[in-house]
Each structure stands twice: as structure tokens, then as C-alpha cells.
Give the backbone structure.
Amino acid sequence: MTAPTRADAQALDTEDPLAPFRDRFVIHDPEIIYMDGNSLGRLPIETQDRIRSMVAGEWGGQLVRGWDEWLDLPTRAGVSVAALIGALAEEVVVSDSTTVNLFKLASAALDARPGRNVIVTEADNFPTDLYVLQGIARNRGLELRLLDVRPGERADARLVSQVLDEDVALVSLSHVHYRTAALADMPGVTAAVQDAGALMLWDLCHAVGAVPIDLGAARADLAVGCTYKYLNAGPGAPAVLYVRRDLIEELTQPVWGWFGQTDQFAMGPEYHPLPDIRRFLTGTPPIVALAGVEIGARLISEAGIGRLREKSLRLTDLILALHEDWLAPMGFDIGTPRSPDERGAHIALRHAAASDLCRKLIEKGNVIPDFREPDVIRYAPAPIYASFVEVWDAMEKLRELAQIA
Ligand SMILES: *Cc1c(COP(=O)(O)O)cnc(C)c1O
């Protein structure tokens, strides 16, 4: 098979029903090819406008009266995200950071499984996930048991079952792996973990807005996830927190703040958490940052997660095809599972000089990828705004730079 040409990529853009969505984003410099949508999504024009009017009109004009509008933003944003992750509206709230939400839910889960003293996660999980679980294990005197998933493999029921026993209280894994993009088998793993009597906590950071997620169908217990990656909510925008409906009242989180309190403004002396998802809130939410979550999630819903996934697989297929023809002969390798059922929305291109090539892509190629230790260039074309020609050009630049090196 011969490599797809630039004209082939142009033809795919012409036929792309999602192409008009690019115009809904700020494209400050059209020459820059953005392959890093999984680190920080682009800015939606509507969010830029909304944040301007919120700052000037609501903060500047309404002052403290603005809270009449702002108080339900965490639950309203939760409703817009719920639609994308197969959750009920009352099962999701948007608050704090992913790191903090992970701490809250992991702690609550452990309290709900007294007598069990093991937490399971993947050895190569995202660092903050590892650190949070290490800290909890240290504080509580628990064992942190690490699962090995080899590059090109994904977490499934068979693999996870190897580390499960009656001591395991909690398993926490990423739905899409941040480096390899391996897509875990959510229903299979969840069922295996629950069969062992443990609770399952999914990290959706690299999945939400990029792949279809059905927490309800998987009967998932708990989940957290970023909004500033594929949901395009903005740097540091607060994070997703999901608890299955029947578990909400059973779980108590460790950060007892007034936003989780029943009848908050009665200012009572003792903590009595609300009976709904808001019991997982802590303190005053970052209102300006929250504005971007609702808009970002709605944009993804409007484009349709099914259509986005279809385009994303085509974009990444193009990377795989060009890799085969151009890069593999130069010593590159793919660090992502090949099967469409087993990968998320980016491709890990592995090369011994990856770090150097990434720097050159940015400095000389006008391409923004990102580098992950030890040898990975991540190309993450976000399907809502990336084009096929951009992907083709990004691959062509990488080929050029690798030839010179
Ligand atoms: C991006 C990412 C995070 C980031 O957490 P923050 O609290 O927002 O810094 C956490 N976990 C995973 C898997 C991620 O990909």
C-alpha cells in the first residue's frame, strides 16, 4: 500500500461533517499545527465571550449578588458532562482538581471497605494518580499493589484478576492511558473488581470528550476526570466527579467543607453532608473557570461523541499509515495498541531521539506535539478542531526532521 497523499488528506477534510466545528475555536495562528489537545484543549470562541461578559457584567456589575446565578454552576456543569459519560444528571458534579477528586473518592471508597488493606493501580499510571494513592496508602498503613501493563497491551479483566483477592478494597485505573493511549476494558474490569468485593475508580482524563464512555452500562462505582483536555474548558478548569446513584449516600468524603453541607447558609456548627452528589463538594468553586466546562461539554455533545470518535479513529489511522511508510523504516515504533477497540484518541510515536525531535518540531516545524519520558512523541489530534491535512503535515514535518537528524 502506498502512503496517503496530501490530496487524500484534503479530500477527507472536504467530506468531514465535523469540519465546521473548527470555526467555533480561536485559531490565533493558522500556521501552527496543534497536536496537543490531550494536554490543553483549544479555546472555544463562546467561552472567550462568556468569560469576558462574566467578569465584566457579573463580577464587575452584580458583585456578590452574582452568587444567585453561580451557586449551581458545579451541578449544572455536571449535568452537561453527565451526557457524555453515560451517567445520570444527579451522579456528576464538577469541582476541585482531578488530583483532589481522586483523593476524595479513593478515601471515601476505602472507608466503605473496612478490613481490606490493599489498593490496586497500574505501575505506569499517571504520576498524580500514583502519588495520591501512595500518600493514602502511607497514611492508612495500606499496601499499594501495582499492576504491570506492557506497552501495546491494555487493562482487561484477565490482567486485573491476577492481582485481585479478598484483601483488595479499591482498584483505580485510567480509562485511556496518558502515554500509550491504551483503552481499558471498562465493563470487563469493573465487573471483575466488583466480583472480588472491591470498588472501582476510573480516571477519565484522557477519555472524556474523546471516546464514548458508558459508566451506567458498566455499572461503574466511581470516576474522576479532567475538563481542560478534550473538553476544552481551559487551563486549570475544575474536574469531573462521578458517584453511582446508590453509592452517593453510603460514601463520606474526607474534606468536610461548607459546600457539601446541608443548609449551607444556616452556618450550623456541625457537618451534616447533603444527601446528594453535592456532598462531594468542598469549598467555594472557581466560578470563572467553571463557565468553560459547561460550554466545552455542550460543544462536544453538539458534535456528537459517536461522530467525534469515528473521525478520531480516522485521524489516528492516518498517523498509523504514514508511520508505516515513512517512519518505521527510520527506526520509529508505535507505542499504542493497534486495534481501534483498544486505543483512545492519540498515538504514541516512539523513537530514541524523541525528546530532541519534539523540540525541533516546535522550534522549526511549527508543530506542537508533546514528549513523554522516555521515548514517546504524542500526536493527539482533537477531532473537534483538528484536520486531516494538519495530521498529514505534522507527519511530514516529523519525517523531514528525522531525516536530517
Ligand atoms: C491530566 C491528568 C491528570 C491531571 O490532574 P490535575 O489534578 O488536573 O493536575 C490526572 N490524571 C490523569 C490520568 C491525567 O491524564
Q: What stands out?
A: The first helix runs from residue 6 to 15. The first strand starts at residue 33 and ends at 34.
